[in-house]
Automatic annotation (TrEMBL):
Homodimer. It is found in: Cytoplasm. This is Ribokinase. It comes from Pannonibacter phragmitetus. Belongs to the carbohydrate kinase PfkB family. Ribokinase subfamily. Pathway: Carbohydrate metabolism; D-ribose degradation; D-ribose 5-phosphate from beta-D-ribopyranose: step 2/2. Activated by a monovalent cation that binds near, but not in, the active site. The most likely occupant of the site in vivo is potassium. Ion binding induces a conformational change that may alter substrate affinity.
């Protein structure tokens, strides 16, 4: 089938600082840098897809600063073709994550670059895409850029996959242009008013072809037009840090089906569950994702 995935989304540099307690307004406190890692939902999904062996391109905007070079260096270590669009006068996106000894997180993320990627630039990056290729999108780009990409994908007969995260008020116009949606409980509740099979029905009625609702440790639902809904269990894991679990799940499910030349099926969802069980059992973002070698073992089942 020779499908290529084109992931268009954000890349961010995550810096995790451990503190004894969350800082309060006006306070100056000491912290210890715990991890620095590549993050951002677009980059996460592209890295995981690349590690499955599916030919993958990441299209992302970065600013003109020292973080852009670090982002470039880290992505160069991954089996992903990277098209970084450098935006003059902008700063690269980053997250500052505070963690406390009791495992609490507070995260501040900037979206100057991802939010400034213009529709023309994003669409131009799809130039080499061919019919049947995957276009993978999340909620970090602007409304016009996301809508422009979805319309272009439809015109070119590309398969569109969307993860409505972070939630934005403007997703309603997207559904008829989306082939496959992956969402979690909170997103389902917010967008459809329920977080079970009724949410998948709602999205199918809105024009989406395949819906995958992830339910944390309770597994996932796969709903397709004119087929009975399937419930696929999670793979038991000792969850230490769930950052990137949803991104791992989406990327592996899409890649598993694309590598076999089939539509999303139960086996793809089981592969995704096995891969995200590894991600939740490790700390960090990029460093927690299954390696290429682990991915080969998962996809062989
Ligand atoms: P995150 O925001 O933490 O990246 P998410 O909220 O988008 O994740 P979830 O539904 O929480 O998505 O998790 C995605 C998938 O990860 C689940 O369907 C499951 O396969 C796996 N997973 C998550 N939590 C656990 C867990 N505690 N044990 C085993 N698997 C898990």
């Amino acid at each position: 089938a020779n499908v290529r995935a084109h992931v268009i989304g954000n890349v961010a540099f995550d810096e995790t600082i451990s503190v004894s307690a969350m800082p309060e307004a006006g306070a100056s406190i000491l912290g210890r840098e715990e991890t620095r890692d590549l993050g951002g939902k677009g980059a996460n999904q592209a890295v995981v897809m690349g590690r499955t062996g599916l030919p993958t391109t990441l299209v992302s905007a970065v600013g003109e600063d020292f973080r852009a070079q670090t982002i470039r260096n880290q992505l160069a270590l991954e089996p992903v073709e990277t098209k970084l669009i450098s935006l003059a006068g902008r700063s690269s996106d980053f997250s500052i994550i505070f963690t406390t000894p009791d495992g609490e997180n507070a995260i501040v993320t900037t979206t100057d670059s991802a939010g400034s990627l213009a529709p023309e630039e994003a669409i131009a990056a799809l130039k080499g895409a061919k019919a049947g290729d995957l276009v993978v999108l999340q909620g970090n780009l602007s409304e016009v850029t996301t809508l422009g990409l979805l319309q272009e994908a439809r015109r070119r007969k590309l398969v569109t996959a969307f993860n409505p995260s972070p939630l934005r008020p403007y997703f309603a116009a997207f559904w008829p242009l989306i082939d496959i949606v992956f969402l979690n409980r909170g997103e389902a509740e917010n967008l459809t008013g329920s977080s079970n099979g009724a949410a998948t029905e709602w999205l199918l009625r809105s024009g989406v072809r395949h819906v995958v609702l992830t339910l944390g440790g309770d597994g996932a639902l796969l709903a397709r037009q004119n087929e009975p809904i399937a419930a696929i269990p999670a793979v038991p894991a000792k969850a230490i840090d769930t950052t990137g679990a949803g991104d791992t799940f989406m990327a592996v499910a899409l890649a598993s089906a694309a590598l076999r030349g089939v539509e999303l099926d139960n086996r793809a969802i089981s592969h995704a569950a096995a891969a995200s069980a590894l991600t939740v059992s490790r700390r960090g973002t990029r460093s927690a994702f299954p390696t290429s070698e682990e991915m080969r073992a998962i996809l062989a089942h």
